[in-house]
Amino acid sequence: MSGLVVAMDGPSGSGKSSVSRGVARALGLRYLDTGAMYRAMTWWMLQQGVDLADPAAIAARSGEPSIVSGTDPEGPTIQVDGVDVGGPIREAEVTGAVSAVAAVPEVRARLVALQRELAGAGDIVVEGRDIGSVVCPDAAVKVYLTASAEARARRRSAELTGSTVEAQQADMARRDTLDSTRKTDPLSMADGAVELDTTALNLEEVIAEVLRLVKERT
Ligand code: C5P
């Protein structure tokens, strides 16, 4: 199974992170959360006071921060200029701003290059929005996870305190629209991807289904 790449795409709240980590653990693979890299870039831009309503300003600064991702599925890490930002990148301010930053082509070019470097050696599960289509188009296994909007919002609000299902659903709908309508590398189902609707499945069932796909295709 040397060199195996599993590409895991889908909208927010579809279960990508839990499923990707579970699959990586079961197969002894590394794990890369590309969303964390876009979040880290966004966190840095906010720290720097960059005007996030101005794509040219974002583009001009996008080469500056050093972003380093750990790939251990037991405890993935993310650092910006040597600072661990695993906590801050999950805060509402970053979540609210990340889709605007991720829509800037210069940001994507920089982070896609880093992601390809990390994924190049294989033996990795890579999760995001454009993995099967752009980052790893030759991945042996491509999965596109979906779930109903209500199920996705319910899962996310169970993870966060102080947020209602309705508020989550509205925030996700806004991000999904931005992510799937942007000009550069929009969220879409890649050629050769298998769509897996997880609405009625629990985590173990989804992981088992992905492991079955891996077995079938390798
Ligand atoms: O997966 P997560 O919700 O942490 O991703 C945060 C945001 O990063 C997404 O809403 C999207 O705007 C962006 N993203 C992206 N391409 C990826 C991964 C994430 O544009 N491969």
Average residue-wise pLDDT: 94
List the helices and strands in order.
Answer: EHEHHEEEHHEHEHHEH
Fraction of residues in helix: 40-55%
Strand composition percent: 5-15%
Q: What is the terminal separation in angstroms?
A: 7 Å
The stretches of 5 or more residues where confidence is low (pLDDT under 50) are none
Total number of domains: 1
At CATH's second level, what is the architecture? 3-Layer(aba) Sandwich
Please count the helical segments: 9
**What would the principal axes of the Cα set say about the shape?**
globular
Which molecules are bound in this entry? cytidine-5'-monophosphate
Structure description:
Helix 1 (16-27) crosses helix 9, helix 2 packs across helix 4 and helix 2 (34-48) packs across helix 5. The chain contains nine helices and eight strands. The chain has a single domain (5-217), classed as P-loop containing nucleotide triphosphate hydrolases (Rossmann fold, 3-Layer(aba) Sandwich), CATH 3.40.50.300. The protein is α/β, with parallel strands linked by helices. It has helices spanning 16-27, 34-48, 55-61, 92-102, 105-119, 131-135, 149-159, 165-181, 203-217, and strands at 5-9, 30-33, 67-69, 78-80, 83-84, 124-128, 141-146, 194-197. The strands form two sheets. The chain has a five-stranded parallel β-sheet with strand order 2-6-1-7-8, sandwiched between helices. Bound molecules: cytidine-5'-monophosphate. Cytidine-5'-monophosphate binds at residues 12, 34-35, 38-39, 98-99, 102, 128-130, 175, 179.
